Amino acid sequence: MAKKIIFWILVGFALIQFFPIDRTNQPVDSAKNFVSVRKTPEKIAILLKNACYDCHSNETVYPKYAFIAPVSWSVKSHINEGREHINFSIWETYNKDLKQNMLSKSIQTIQSKAMPMPGYIVYHKEANLSDAERALLVQYFEEMLKTKTY
User: Fold this and answer.
1) DSSP H helices in the chain
2) What is the pLDDT of residues 84-115, one digit of tens each?
3) Does 23 score more than 90 pLDDT?
4) Count of beta carbons in the 10 Å neighbourhood of residue 140
5) I need a surface site. Which of 40, 71, 102, 150 has the fewest CB within 10 A?
6) pTM here?
7) What is the DSSP letter of 113?
8) Is the dihedral of CA 120, 125, 128, 129 positive or negative?
9) Which of 98, 52, 139 is nearest to 147 (CA)?
10) CB 89 within 8 A of CB 28
11) Alpha helices, DSSP H only, in 86-130?
């Protein structure tokens, strides 16, 4: 009985591999992209790309584990949710109030260490921000809010 159950679980696992997620990224227009439009300093741009862009832009680089169902479904769900909160690739399409809100929420999530997500950091060491790097991002976003240059 146990062998049959294991067999059917393996068959099911094999079958779901034939239904991959859509890993297509939308084209990125530099005229709308946060880093390009803001002329973001290189240090900030690198931090954003390493720690944020995989889930919060249209420049996602899917890791190898994102090609195996059902893990791929979870990864895609996280990316879709991340892009709903903030998508740096379409920054210039947001109105000023939304930009202000997104920056404020980004500051909160960076300071509370809710982002990058701990589960993401495990597989993406470059996203593990030091306290100094977090402070640098927060300072940059706070300056944008203070000067209303968003």
Assistant:
1) 2-16, 34-37, 42-51, 71-85, 96-111, 118-123, 131-147
2) 999 999 999 999 999 999 999 999 999 999 99
3) no
4) 19
5) 71
6) 0.86
7) T
8) negative
9) 139
10) yes
11) 96-111, 118-123
